[in-house]
Write a structure and sequence with these properties.
The chain has 394 residues and is an alpha/beta fold. It is built from 13 helices and 17 strands. The relative contact order is 0.13.
């Protein structure tokens, strides 16, 4: 799979580069929650490279779900603050995404200057993959670079239609992501262990079907496990699960049951309150008002044994309600068990909820590859053609 990429010696001095990034990170008290290896921190390295080459960089990103309306809570201001910190220069925001004011701001950029456009999703044409919006974006620059693999599965104007307007290239991180995931699909070393958490089975089903013939075992955790419990007729109490996925789970158990491992013990809470009673139990013992919140130690020991033999490991999705420290033990234990395989196995982790956990634990560099894509990674590994990849081929 060959992508158009910028050569290291490409003459970029004075060129206006429209760079698509994914800076869609959580915000707390007006600050972007972005760790040392977070989405913004990683792309800042590539922005710095372009600036040092003398390019005039015009950044664009989506931020939250404003549904095509200008919502102040979804302004990119926290992104600009974080980028200013990382790049050691003030990153100004152009409040107009396209139009005369945006064109004037882009034209005034000096060599090595940077500008951040306001949230792309403030314009309803972005998510409609509108040619008119792509043309308006195209008037801001001389070339387009996509360094946002995490949204490559979206047919949006800043990802898809824009490639018909400007000379278009894959950014370094985008190209590396495609290279690594392609290699993973071609020839994974055996034994191959797949670790799946999260909630929605439907979004993970195509990848499961594609990879199940190649894997030794699939280790299931998180709310995804609850869906399989429901498929087996086990009580769930008030636990979160994917109701639409129960039929799909029954099909997977029927076809691939010998490869699918489920938790044998779970951490259970009487409610979501901070003072809730917590106990360890079996999936068969869940009472009416109780919620399964994490996998238990017996399960983690069994899962660690499977991981200790693996030569290839892919992990997507948390194994518990890791937003609460009391229920993050399972996810953290999985992270440590996979990190321990560094040098012995090719380990890939991805997913918007999983990556912050390993970053916070200081384990980011203990994995062979950390994908910034959640849905994009799943779609790519299922064999689907991603719009953002297709337009950069050749």
């Amino acid at each position: 799979m060959r992508l158009r990429t910028l050569r290291k010696d490409a003459p970029l001095g004075g060129k206006r580069v429209l760079l698509r990034i994914d800076a869609n990170v959580p915000v707390k008290k007006g600050r972007a929650v972005d760790g040392m290896f977070g989405r913004i921190a990683q792309v800042a390295v590539d922005i710095e490279w372009l600036l040092q080459k003398g390019a005039r960089v015009i950044l664009m990103t989506h931020f939250g779900r404003p549904d095509g309306k200008r919502v102040s809570a979804y302004s990119v201001r926290p992104v600009a603050k974080r980028l200013s910190q990382l790049l050691n220069c003030k990153v100004p925001i152009c409040r107009e995404i396209v139009g005369e004011k945006a064109e004037r701001a882009a034209a005034r950029l000096p060599d090595g200057g940077v500008l951040l456009l306001e949230n792309l999703r403030f314009d309803p044409r972005e998510e409609k993959n509108s040619p008119s919006f792509a043309q308006a974006l195209g008037r801001l620059a001389d070339m387009y670079v996509d360094d946002a693999f995490s949204v490559a599965h979206r047919s949006h104007a800043s990802i898809d239609a824009i490639a018909d307007i400007l000379p278009s290239y894959a950014g370094p991180r985008f190209a590396h992501e495609v290279e690594v995931l392609s290699r993973l699909m071609r020839a994974p070393k055996k034994p191959f262990v797949l670790c799946m958490g999260g909630l929605k089975l439907k979004t993970k089903l195509p990848m499961l079907k594609r990879l199940l013939p190649s894997v030794e075992v699939v280790l299931i955790g998180g709310a995804l496990a609850h869906t399989f419990f429901a498929a087996k007729g086990l009580p769930l109490g008030a636990s979160a699960f994917d109701e639409e996925g129960v039929t799909l789970a029954k099909e997977l158990i029927r076809t691939w049951g010998e490869k699918i491992q489920l938790p044998s013990d779970v951490v259970v809470a009487s409610s979501l309150r901070e003072d809730a009673r917590i106990r360890l139990g079996t999936p068969e013992s869940i009472r009416h008002a109780e919620r399964i919140m994490d996998v238990g130690p017996e399960t983690l020991k069994r899962y660690a044994e499977s991981l200790s033999r693996a030569r290839t490991i892919v992990w997507n999705g948390p194994f518990g309600y890791c937003e609460r420290e009391a229920f993050s033990a399972g996810t953290q234990a999985m992270a440590r068990a996979i990190a321990d395989r560094i040098g012995e196995a090719f380990t890939v982790v991805g997913g918007g909820d999983t990556v912050p956990v390993i970053d916070g634990m200081g384990l980011f560099n203990k994995f062979s590859f950390v994908s910034m894509g959640g849905g994009a990674m799943l779609d790519f590994l299922s064999g689907d053609e991603l719009p953002g990849v297709r337009v950069l081929m050749g």
